[in-house]
Specification:
The structure holds two protein chains of two kinds.
Chain A: H1 2-15, E1 19-23, H2 32-37, E2 42-44, H3 49-61, E3 65-71, H4 80-88, E4 94-99, H5 117-122, E5 128-130, H6 135-144, E6 151-155, E7 167-168, E8 179-183, H7 188-200, E9 205-209, E10 212-214, H8 220-226, E11 231-239, H9 244-254, E12 260-266, H10 277-283, H11 288-300
Parallel strand pairs in A: 1-2, 1-3, 3-4, 4-6, 5-6, 7-9, 8-9, 8-11, 11-12
Antiparallel strand pairs in A: 5-10
Helix pairs in contact in A: 3-4, 7-11
Chain B: H1 10-28, H2 33-38, H3 40-50, E1 65-68, H4 74-83, H5 124-137, E2 144-149, H6 156-167, E3 173-179, H7 188-191, H8 197-203, E4 207-212, H9 216-224, E5 231-236, H10 259-270
Helix pairs in contact in B: 1-3, 1-4, 1-10, 3-4, 3-9, 5-6
Classes of the chains: A alpha/beta, B alpha/beta.
Bound molecules: thiamine diphosphate (TPP).
Thiamine diphosphate sits between chains B (35, 38, 70, 72, 119-122, 149-152, 178, 180, 182-184, 239, 253) and A (24-26, 47, 49, 74, 78).
């Protein structure tokens, strides 16, 4: 996914010299062609995320379309106030590309677990948040990536394979079932695994994936389709505090929906043990098995 | 199980560190071997010779304290603690694996002897300043050491901390810069020019020394020097030092050795 995105930006940049790409000393070999063919549009800013955002701000102020690249928490938490005061307050055309959502860089340790980014970035005005999981979702985002405003885009190295049916928000056709899982980003794969098993047990489960989580607006058709489900679960690879589930809950409340709703996400604590993505998802109880047990417990009650 | 050299000299300690860390990186399928090899002599001199830090006293408040700011070289510190018998050497086998406490970036959680967890570059000097200041306020004898990468000095937070260190004349603090001239994609000079580094740091008022950072004798002598303010040692090193095909080849910042490369590297380290 990440490579496709950079290739896409490169192709656009060849035709538009106002497109500029910055990296914070990350993405080894990823930018070789870009740097070689468009040396005036690519800069390795060094390991200095605050300065990268500052430079992006200045460039965007002069009407450049800027993309900045780094991983995990570095292009968000590390330089948060710069994002708020400079990019967002001045509403500038900068897209922050953050590679490695949730536990993607698991074994590297706690510093590399991007498990609060969504909550934190979500709380800043003016910035849009994209969290795609699949090839199709990235395609949808490519259409919005040139909007003239701050954007935060979470990507991973690989796409999630679309091996079962699920819907991507905004949805067009009518859906119904007993259980609905609303998910964002690559944790979609755990929802899909869970849904296959639940469907086998005759618990009809639908999934909606949300590649756009800010701004998120529910239209009347969608609200009506939500009413048809007995239970709705939100799922995220992010801290429950201020995350996707709470955002969803706000929308439910705002629309006066009487729905049986539960948030599945990472508890408000650090996982200190070492592990890869799959291992840490299990520990955090956001893997497919845990999802099934949440759902079965809820149905029983 | 582990064929190691006898831990009776600084040079053997360093050799053992390279062997152990190579094994950890290989079996854990991890990165950063070149960043680790670059600072093996620095870690060795600190833990084997210089610091007041041993199995006997490492829990006492009077110990010397080391903060690894370039957290991606964590394996070197875990291995040094194993050679000091503070952690069982066998446990290193779990490095980077599911259920382990040894993450790629240095982590103190349930690892006795690790002072502090890092991983986001640019934090170590400031934290070491805080520890050093507290130590002074409490009139403790502990000396504080921190190791930073040269690329890491891209981060402005490092320079804020240098201002602070000098302002408070933290002469109980030693900052060692692993000057291997590489960072993550290119050389430091091609990414964000650092030179003349010595003059820059000197202009902050700090006491700066330059040594061959892969030479244990030079490091030892320099560490012994007394200063009135914070000591900064620019340790000129070779990224990937010790394995010919890894030296000064940026690919080894990331690459995990395959079986053949691992055997070749081990052969060079054992001989
Ligand atoms: C804040 C932050 N940004 C980026 C990174 C990713 N990163 C890890 S190691 C590294 C290069 C470090 O270079 P240097 O400090 O020279 O250390 P070396 O590995 O060469 O010893 C980078 C960019 C990080 N860990 N933290």
């Amino acid at each position: 996914m990440r490579n496709d995105l950079i290739r896409f930006i490169f192709d656009k940049a060849k035709k538009n010299k106002n497109i500029i790409l910055l990296t914070g000393d990350l993405g080894y070999s990823l930018f070789d062609e870009f740097a070689q063919k468009l040396p005036n549009q690519f800069f390795n800013i060094g390991i200095s995320e605050q300065n990268m955002i500052a430079v992006a701000t200045g460039l965007a102020k002069e009407k450049k379309k800027v993309f900045v690249y780094s991983i995990g928490n570095f292009p968000s938490l590390r330089c948060l106030e710069f994002i708020r005061n400079n990019l967002c307050y001045h509403n500038l055309d900068v897209t922050i590309i953050s590679c490695g959502s949730g536990y993607e860089y698991g074994q590297l340790g706690f510093s590399h677990h991007a498990t609060e980014v969504l909550s934190v970035i979500r709380s800043i005005p003016n910035i849009s948040i994209f969290n795609p999981a699949t090839l199709k979702e990235l395609k949808q985002i490519k259409r919005k990536i040139f909007l003239n405003q701050p954007k935060f885009l979470m990507v991973n190295k690989n796409y999630i394979k679309e091996n079962i049916n699920f819907h991507t928000f905004p949805i067009k056709k009518k859906i119904n079932g007993k259980i609905l899982i609303c998910t964002t980003g690559s944790i979609l794969e755990e929802a899909m695994k869970a849904s296959v098993l639940l469907n086998k047990k005759n618990i009809k489960t639908e999934i909606i994936s949300f590649p756009f989580i800010k701004p998120l607006i529910f239209n009347i058709d969608f609200i009506n389709s939500l009413k048809k489900f007995n239970y709705i679960f939100s799922l995220e690879e992010n801290n429950i505090s201020g995350g996707f589930g709470e955002l969803f809950l706000n929308l439910i409340n705002k629309n006066n929906l009487k729905i049986n709703f539960e948030i599945i996400g990472i508890k408000d604590e650090f996982i200190k043990i070492v592990g890869d993505k799959n291992y840490l998802r299990k520990k955090a109880r956001i893997d497919s098995k845990s999802i099934i047990s949440y759902i079965e417990k809820k149905i029983k009650n | 199980m582990y064929k190691l050299f006898k831990n009776d000299s600084i040079n053997n300690f360093a050799k053992n560190l390279r062997i152990l860390t190579l094994k950890m990186i290989y079996h854990g399928r991890a990165s950063h071997i070149a960043s680790i090899f670059s600072c093996i002599e620095i870690i060795s001199v600190l833990y084997f010779n210089h610091m007041n830090f041993s199995k006997k006293n490492y829990q006492r408040d009077t110990r010397d304290k080391f903060i690894l700011s370039k957290g991606h070289a964590g394996a070197a510190v875990y291995a040094a603690l194993a050679l000091l018998k503070i952690i069982p050497i066998k446990k290193l086998d779990t490095y980077y694996k599911n259920g382990s406490v040894f993450s790629g970036h240095v982590s103190h959680y349930k690892v006795p002897g690790i002072e502090y967890s890092t991983g986001s570059l640019g934090s170590g000097i400031g934290i070491a300043c805080g520890v050093a200041l507290a130590s002074k306020l409490d009139k403790k004898k502990s000396k504080i050491f921190t190791l930073v990468g040269d690329g890491e000095l891209n981060e402005g937070s490092c320079w804020e901390a240098l201002l602070f260190a000098n302002h408070h004349k933290l002469n109980n603090l030693t900052i060692i810069i692993d000057r291997n001239y590489y960072q993550s994609i290119l050389t430091t000079e091609k990414t964000l020019k650092l030179n003349p580094l010595k003059q820059k740091i000197k202009s902050f008022g700090l006491d700066v020394f330059e040594v061959d950072g892969n030479d244990t004798k030079q490091l030892k002598d320099c560490l012994k020097k007394k200063t009135t303010t914070t000591k900064v040692i620019i340790a000129n090193t070779i990224k990937g030092k010790g394995v010919s095909f890894m030296q000064n080849n940026i690919k080894w910042h990331y690459k995990n050795p395959d079986r053949e490369e691992y055997n070749l590297a081990l052969k060079e380290l054992i001989n």
